[in-house]
Amino acid sequence: MKQLLTILLFFLATGHAVAQQGLAINELFSGNIIPKERMVETRIRGRMLTDYKMSLFRSVKCKVSKEELDKINALVQQDIASYKTTEYLADERHKRSTTLMVQLAKKGKTYCYICQKAESDGKKQWVVTLIYIESTLGTLSELKKMFNNK
Length: 150
What we know:
36% strand, 31% helix, alpha+beta, 6-stranded antiparallel beta sheet, 150 residues
């Protein structure tokens, strides 16, 4: 029984790890760009997300230098270039804050999104939040509306 439970837990854990497999941003989620001990990671999957019409929500938040921010931005841009993006929203405020929302190509019946926010803390560091979402919502507008209503 313990062995079966261990195997089930392993498959559940690896399901979260491979959700964004194939994307360049997986390098960040894997801890290859920023060490995991410097990141706050959130993974939510399953029933908790049904009200939000999502099947997966995964985010990392960390403080980074300008050089590390450039690496993260390059990963996001690589995914934008590599995958069909159907919607793209960007907002930059006084070079101190940027927000980016991208809808990637559909995977079966699931829509995939990357959201990134970077804010300068005024001390030559940036606070970066990168989010990967799998959802049944078909547009960024629907996703933003759902977040604004919840």
